[in-house]
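idk why but the lab printer keeps eating my pages so im just putting this in chat instead. protein + fe (ii) ion:
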Amino acid sequence: MAIILPDLPYAYDALEPYIDAETMHLHHDKHHQAYVNNANAALEKHPEIGEDLEALLADVESIPADIRQALINNGGGHLNHALFWELMTPEKTAPSAELAAAIDATFGSFEEFQAAFTAAATTRFGSGWVWLVVNKEGKLEVTSTANQDTPISEGKKPILGLDVWEHAYYVKYRNVRPDYIKAFFSVINWNKVDELYAAAK
Ligand SMILES: [Fe+2]
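predcted complex ->
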């Protein structure tokens, strides 16, 4: 077995005009495929550790030193992108009453949550991700990670994530990352976020 690139759960142009088809082709077919290929190349050197990337990245010290950084980068890249595709949809969705109440209790209101998420995404220097996670205390938290680092390595369970690498937005939004972040909020698959929240809390 090897890790395989999952198909998108919708057409490449399904998220237009918020996320354009050219970006989706490049991002999924080229960037995500490269993470898959490079993760497989690393895993092949140590068949004894298996292929459970979530378990491996939850305990990075357990990864053999000669492939550790390759798996953090490429195994993380695969997990982050596989999740990211599922976190978007062309359908209109909304948080469940339970998740909406947790967001209100944590951030004050949905608008304040969106502002906190947007600020974290805007100020993530260089390449990385911004997340809504369930932390070790079972509470919601907005956090961000550099490169392809996953919150799983910090003991946190991601329930929403936004890729803020330039490859995620530069074709359409050029240098204007805030417009891309705003557009993302129009395509969030809250049904998937609800599902992850229910499993994580
Ligand atoms: Fe990406």
